[in-house]
Automatic annotation (TrEMBL):
Matching PANTHER family: REDOX-SENSING TRANSCRIPTIONAL REPRESSOR REX, REDOX-SENSING TRANSCRIPTIONAL REPRESSOR REX 1
Main location: cytoplasm
Alphabetical keyword list: Cytoplasm, DNA-binding, NAD, Repressor, Transcription, Transcription regulation
Protein name from the UniProt record: Redox-sensing transcriptional repressor Rex
Sites where the protein binds NAD(+): G92, C93, G94, N95, L96, G97
Subunit structure: Homodimer.
Organism: Lacticaseibacillus chiayiensis
InterPro entries to which the protein is assigned, alphabetical: CoA-bd, NAD(P)-bd_dom_sf, Rex_DNA-bd_C_dom, Tscrpt_rep_Rex, WH-like_DNA-bd_sf, WH_DNA-bd_sf
Domain CoA-binding: 81-181
UniProt similarity note: Belongs to the transcriptional regulatory Rex family.
Record-linked SUPFAM superfamilies: NAD(P)-binding Rossmann-fold domains, Winged helix' DNA-binding domain
Location(s) in or outside the cell: Cytoplasm
DNA-binding residue intervals: 18-57
Length: 222
C-alpha cells in the first residue's frame, strides 16, 4: 500500500505509533477484527478521529464491519518502517536516562536501547537494567554499524556538542529532552520534548474544560 506521508498531518503522524502499538497488542491476544469504538476506548482517541485517520490509508475496512487487526498491524508497520528491531543509543544516564533505560520500550518490541553513554565516572563501566554504560568519549568505538537513532538526556548547555558528536558518527534521528533548538546538519531529524510546555498545555486544557463544565449561576428575578 502506497501512502503519501507528506500529505499526512502532524497530528495523524503522532497517532500512528499509538495505533500500531495497540493493534499489535490485539494481534498478540488473538483478536481478528476491531471496531473504531472499541479501538477508541483503548487509545483514548475519538472514533471519528480514528476513522478520519484511517481514511488516509486506503480501504482498511467497510462501514459497520470493523477493521482487520492483521491488516492494520501490517499497514502501520509499513508506515513506521518496522522491518526489524530499531537499536538505539542513549546519551545522559542521570535520573531521566536511567528511567528510560529501565523501561526500554517494553510495550514495543521493535524499539530497543542497547547502549548508554555518559561522562560521569561513577556511571561509566556500569550497567543499568542490563544495558552497558560507556564513556561518551568512546562513542565512535562503541557505536554499532547501522545505528542511526539516539535519545539525548543531557542539560541544554551540553546538547549542541552532544548532537554534533552524534552526527559525526552517523546518527540522523535524535529525540532530545533539552527543548532549546540547536544547529544541526540538513539530514538530521531532531524531535524536541519540552516536558514543562507539555504539562502547561495539559493544565490549560484541563482548566478550560472545567470552566465549560461549571454550571452557570441563574440570574435572579427582580
Amino acid at each position: 500500500m502506497v501512502v503519501n506521508k507528506l500529505a499526512l498531518s502532524q497530528a495523524t503522524i503522532k497517532r500512528i505509533p499509538v495505533y500500531y502499538r495497540t493493534v499489535k497488542a490485539l494481534q498478540q491476544s488473538g483478536v481478528k477484527r476491531v471496531r473504531s469504538d472499541r479501538l477508541s476506548k483503548l487509545v483514548h482517541i475519538a472514533p471519528a478521529t480514528i476513522r478520519r485517520d484511517f481514511s488516509n490509508f486506503g480501504d482498511l475496512g467497510r462501514s459497520g464491519y470493523s477493521y482487520s487487526v492483521d491488516l492494520l498491524a501490517e499497514v502501520f508497520g509499513e508506515l513506521l518502517e518496522v522491518h526489524s528491531e530499531e537499536q538505539m543509543l542513549l546519551v545522559g544516564c542521570g535520573n531521566l536516562g536511567r528511567a528510560l533505560l529501565t523501561n526500554n520500550f517494553r510495550r514495543n518490541p521493535d524499539l530497543s536501547i542497547v547502549m548508554g553513554f555518559d561522562t560521569d565516572p561513577s556511571l561509566i563501566g556500569t550497567t543499568i537494567a542490563g544495558i552497558p554504560i560507556y564513556n561518551l568519549a568512546t562513542l565512535s568505538e562503541k557505536i554499532r554499524p547501522g545505528m542511526h537513532t539516539a535519545i539525548v538526556c543531557v542539560p541544554s548547555s551540553a546538547q549542541a556538542s552532544v548532537i554534533s558528536q552524534l552526527e559525526a558518527n552517523g546518527i540522523t534521528a535524535i529525540l532530545t529532552f533539552a527543548p532549546k533548538p540547536v544547529p544541526a546538519q540538513p539530514g538530521t531529524k531532531i524531535r524536541y520534548i519540552d516536558l514543562t510546555s507539555e504539562l502547561q498545555a495539559l493544565l490549560f486544557v484541563d482548566h478550560q474544560s472545567k470552566l465549560v463544565q461549571e454550571p452557570k449561576t441563574p440570574l435572579k428575578q427582580s
